[in-house]
Amino acid sequence: MAVNFEQQGPFAVVTINRPEARNAVNAAVAQGIEEAIDRIEADDSIWVGIITGVAPVFCAGADLKEINSGNAAGLATTRGGFAGIVQRERTKPIIAAVDGPALAGGTEIVLSCDLVVASTTATFGIPEVKRSLVAAAGGLFRLGRKIPLNIAMELTLTGDPIDATRAHHFGLVNRLVEPGSALDAAVALAEQICANAPVAVRASRKIVLEATNAPDDIGWKMSMEGMAQAMASDDFSEGLTAFIEKRPPQWKGI
């Protein structure tokens, strides 16, 4: 299969599995990622997703052979856009676990995730201009939201990548780890998130994404709505009870 799906307790690992093509995105990968996100979103027992690629590459971007053959449309899905993810509306956090290069569409997949764990072998870049292409899967506007604008402009105009250490310095990477350990570190981060109330996590994620650059009145309104949503969940009383009883909470996720 072009994409593997494995649930591990309250999180799921989605793996791009085309090592013979440097995990480049073809129609099967795009459809597989979209179907994986469908499963994560629909299953109340899954609270966090992780996306990674079979080593030694995270994802080399779009399969240029497919594009050259006139099959570019197949690299996107109706709901998810390129790779089935870059335009996908979703409610649950997704962590990118990056070992090795994440270039072109690979970087754009990373930019569509909520958190990034990368090993020191990872690199990030949008080299489309080197092939008379434009990074059309979100990289040109998302990169400057994650790192300083001048650095984003440098990557855009030169097409040259940055390594994981520099990406971590600029804030694109949350956790920088040793080679081969990005997935393990992403699992540890997922477990930290899953220790918290899932409804509250989803509501908080939505507010951060939609209100950070909005006027304060939008932020206040969304914060109050998020609090009301969390208090209406089954987990609300469990969180307070567990605190009073000095024990770990047993979340239902609803």
Topology (SSEs and partners):
Elements: E1 3-8, E2 11-16, H1 27-42, E3 48-53, H2 64-68, E4 76-77, E5 81-82, E6 94-98, E7 101-103, H3 105-112, E8 115-119, E9 123-125, H4 139-146, H5 149-158, E10 162-163, H6 164-170, E11 175-177, H7 182-194, H8 198-211, H9 216-231, H10 235-244
Parallel strand pairs: 2-3, 3-6, 6-8, 7-9, 8-11
Antiparallel strand pairs: 1-2, 4-5, 9-10
Helix pairs in contact: 3-4, 4-5, 8-9
Short précis:
The chain is α/β, with parallel strands linked by helices and 254 residues long. Helices cover 42% and strands 17% of the residues. The chain folds into 2 domains: 3-194, 2-enoyl-CoA Hydratase, Chain A, domain 1, CATH 3.90.226.10; 198-244.
Commentary on this structure:
The chain has 254 residues and is an alpha/beta fold. It folds into two domains: 3-194, Alpha-Beta Complex (2-enoyl-CoA Hydratase, Chain A, domain 1), CATH 3.90.226; 198-244. 42% of the residues lie in helices and 17% in strands. The chain contains ten helices and eleven strands. The chain has helices at 27-42, 64-68, 105-112, 139-146, 149-158, 164-170, 182-194, 198-211, 216-231, 235-244; strands at 3-8, 11-16, 48-53, 76-77, 81-82, 94-98, 101-103, 115-119, 123-125, 162-163, 175-177. The chain has a six-stranded mixed β-sheet with strand order 1-2-3-6-8-11, with helices on both faces. Strands 7-9-10 form a three-stranded mixed β-sheet. Strands 4-5 form a two-stranded antiparallel sheet. Helix 3 (105-112) crosses helix 4 (139-146) and helix 4 (139-146) packs antiparallel against helix 5 (149-158). The longest helix is centred in the first third of the chain and has 16 residues, at 27-42. The two termini are 32 Å apart. The model has no long low-confidence stretch (mean pLDDT 96).
